[in-house]
Amino acid sequence: MQELTESDYDILHAMENIVDGIAAMWGEHTEVALHCLDKNNPSIMKIANGHITGREVGAPITNFALVKLNEGKDVSDAYITKCPDGKTLRSISTIIRNKNNKAIGMLCVNSNLDAPFQSMMQNLLPNIHSHFDHGVTAETFARNNDEMMHSSIENVREQVTNDSTIPLSKKSREIVTRLNDLGIFGLKDSAQIAAKGLDISIHTIYRYLREIRAHAEVV
């Protein structure tokens, strides 16, 4: 370890929201700790769900984390550890380096394997049905832009078609509006693909877009 510079700390501070992001993704049974590797005070500078190990900001780096640091692998293999209170954790550690390739920090993720299964699943799938009931578009993991556009068009069309509060005469315009909000029409050939997928003319697509954008400018 070495004494860290101001730019090293800037890198570590920039990663603090990643701690919160991982914790939000995996829920209360996963602890995420960002360690500072300053030789003067190697310690936790950001932690989420510290109730799992009982640690807080300022707690020292663990001896096992130091072992992982010296293994020479930037991303460790998953390993099993035990808390003082007996909880079994599945852990992984990632080394953070500066522009000179010097290790300046570690991001450690510890999942509590002893947590009740139902509670773990509730954390992973919070209110999933209510989200879709309110018309949120499912994220599309497409392999190319065409596939993404076709999938987005189909998802939005299904939502609008099944929404009885939207008059039949306004459904096409509502679909185009939602696709525009998703940024679809910023992609190449999107208007042509949307026209074909919605079985309306491309001129109708362009007319809707002009109206939508004119309204946005007025607002």
TrEMBL record:
Residues 12-118 form the YheO-like domain. InterPro entries: DauR-like (IPR039446), DauR-like_HTH (IPR039445), YheO (IPR013559). Pfam families: HTH_22 (PF13309), PAS_6 (PF08348). It comes from the Bacteria. Residues 153-210 form the Transcriptional regulator DauR-like HTH domain. This is DNA-binding protein. It comes from Photobacterium angustum. The lineage of its organism: Bacteria, Pseudomonadati, Pseudomonadota, Gammaproteobacteria, Vibrionales.
